[in-house]
Structure formats: structure tokens, C-alpha cells
Specification:
Strand content: 25-35%
Number of helices: 7
Organism: Poecilia reticulata
CATH class of the largest domain: Alpha Beta
GO molecular function, one term: heme binding
Oligomer: single chain
Protein name: Heme-binding protein soul4
Family: Belongs to the HEBP family.
InterPro entries: Reg_factor_effector_dom_sf, SOUL_heme-bd
Shape: globular
Number of domains: 2
Length: 264
């Protein structure tokens, strides 16, 4: 999708300060533009201590700490950062206006998903810490005892509270197992990680660009809601999904907000 929503105003500028640690942070270790005090001291990928220190510095700007036991997973995913399999889908409909795509309706396949839940003070912290658990699962802490590879997008749940604005802090972050493992899904060593088979899901997806904080995601929910029939009973009104594709350091980072179709 190509429609870019340009956000402005003090709340959005404040939201842009926060970022999400994810697979894409790892992808940009040797080429993304970080704050000057971080890029001035980027360590080579082969330097374990330097690599960990680098990511601890990055994480501190996100209000998240990276423990020393994450050194191995960070290195492993950095070495294998090109092994990302796109999650396929069936395009049901595309809605455009004046040549610009407003949103798409898609159907994603059934299959095994790997997920972790965290409940932190900030929505962004919950996503970041949940993904650290998924990193360890991907990097050999699984019954296959090997690096599993990765699919994109990485998705996180959004559950809106009764006030219609505030997000629940208990957040699930998940990815679809690569096709190689769909016929025999590895089990997790960590009891906090679930490997579950899920039925197909039908979503309405709209692209947006930038960070994925509670403020920016909330804004995007409102934008897509205004584009749809507000009385449409076919979509959930309090459950959404955020899908992340690109490097958070990129000026036009690609994300999507998904509205979930109800089962018929």
C-alpha cells in the first residue's frame, strides 16, 4: 500500500520519541542511522561485548534494558538477518481513492504461530520484552535445537479498554512459523511462549509509516475507522493488530493497522 499519512502536532512528535525493539532493529545494526551518541561507537558484529553494549544503549532510549543473556540471540539474528520469509495472503479487495490505496481486505492462512505475552507499564515496553523472548526461541531455545528463521510481519495485539482509547497493557506479540516448520512445529523450552495452530484470519489492512507507540497506533485506528462504515458489525470494535515490516530507523518505516473480521 502506498498512501502515506503525514502526522503532525505535539502528541505525534512526542510519540515519535519512543521506538520498538524488534527484529528490524537487529537488521540495521551496520547501516541504520542512530542518535549521534550511539552511532559514534558502533562496534563490529564480531565483538560480542561491543554488540551487547550497543544494544543496551539503543534499548535505554526505549526505556527497555537488554540483559547479557541476549548477546547470543542478537548475534545469531544479526548473522541471519536476510532469512526473512514474507507471510503470504489472498487479496480479497483493494479500496482506492484518486489512485491511492486506502486499505485492503486480505485473508491470511491457517498455520502455527509463535507468541509471547508481556504486561508492562508502557505498551511499547510490552512489545519489546515479548519479542526478546521470541528471539531466544528463534535462536535455538526450541525443541529443534536450531535457528528457525523468521517471517514478516511481526504482529502485536491491541485490546482497547472500555473508555475506547486506552490500550490493555497485556500484549501478545507473534510471528508465523516459517514454512519449513509448519508440518512439524518445534516446541518451546520457555513456558511463557506458546506455539499454537490458528485458523485463517481475515483482516482489513491499512499502511502507515513511522513508530508504533500507543499514541500513533491509536491515531491510525481512528483514521481507518473513519474510512469504514462505522456501523459495520462485521469487524471487531475493540481488538486490532499492528503489523511491523521495516527498520525502525528508516525515515518511512512501513507498518500496518489491521481490523479483524468477525467469523461468519
Amino acid at each position: 500500500m502506498v498512501l502515506v499519512l503525514v502526522l503532525s502536532g505535539p502528541q505525534v512528535r512526542c510519540a515519535a520519541v519512543m521506538a520498538l525493539i524488534s527484529l528490524d532493529d537487529l537488521e540495521g545494526l551496520d547501516d541504520e542511522q542512530l542518535d549521534d551518541d550511539i552511532t559514534d561507537n558502533v562496534e563490529p558484529m564480531g565483538d560480542e561485548d561491543g554488540l551487547l553494549s550497543h544494544w543496551q544503549a539503543v534499548a535505554s532510549t526505549h526505556q527497555v534494558s537488554v540483559p547479557t543473556e541476549m548477546t547470543g540471540p542478537i548475534q545469531e539474528m544479526t548473522r541471519n538477518r536476510q532469512q526473512r520469509e514474507p507471510l503470504s495472503f489472498v487479496l480479497i479487495a483493494r479500496h482506492e481513492k484518486m489512485g491511492e490505496v486506502l486499505y485492503e481486505e486480505r485473508r491470511y492462512p491457517a498455520g502455527f504461530w509463535v507468541s509471547a505475552r508481556r504486561s508492562e507499564d508502557l505498551y511499547e515496553q510490552s512489545i519489546s520484552l515479548a519479542f526478546m523472548k521470541l528471539m531466544r526461541f528463534i535462536c535455538k531455545e526450541n525443541s529443534a535445537g536450531r535457528y528457525l528463521g523468521m517471517t514478516v510481519p511481526v504482529v502485536s495485539s491491541v485490546q482497547v479498554m472500555e473508555d475506547g482509547e486506552t490500550f490493555e497493557k497485556n500484549v501478545e506479540t507473534a510471528f508465523f512459523l516459517p514454512s519449513e516448520f509448519q508440518s512439524s512445529a518445534p516446541r518451546s523450552i520457555d513456558p511463557d511462549i506458546s506455539v499454537t495452530y490458528r485458523e485463517p484470519i481475515r483482516v482489513i489492512a491499512r499502511t502507515f509509516y513511522g513508530t508504533t507507540t500507543e499514541q500513533t497506533v491509536g491515531w491510525q485506528i481512528r483514521v481507518l475507522r473513519e474510512l469504514l462504515d462505522p456501523g459495520d458489525p462485521g469487524v471487531h470494535g475493540d481488538r486490532y493488530i499492528v503489523a511491523v515490516y521495516d527498520n525502525p530507523g528508516a525515515p518511512q518505516r512501513r507498518n500496518e493497522i489491521w481490523f479483524i473480521r468477525r467469523e461468519p
